[in-house]
Structure prediction request, 117 residues.
Amino acid sequence: MKLIRKKDSEVQARPDGRTVTRILQQETGMPVTGFQLLYVTHPPNLRERLHAHQRSYEALYFLDRADYRVNDKPYTLEDGDLLLLEPGDIHGATPVGHEVRILVFQSPAITDDKVTY
Prediction:
């Protein structure tokens, strides 16, 4: 598990006025055979069942503040934070009083890769 805080990410100003923030550059040592990008919404006060993925990596980019549990540790994520999960990391959302939007990048995209606890 790796947590990248938005506030700690490098922002580059481009001559044309754009800004580019490098959120993550990570080697996995595996060939990319497929991936999926999901837009996920959690309703207020959702308690997600703890689960892990057996062979997939997940990158969760938070668009809202959220509370999460990873490998039995609590984390508060702010909008713009990125949570990188490796296969076997046990994780799930814990209740917050508002909707939470997350962009989830998963690779490889494997059906039935989830184990719940």
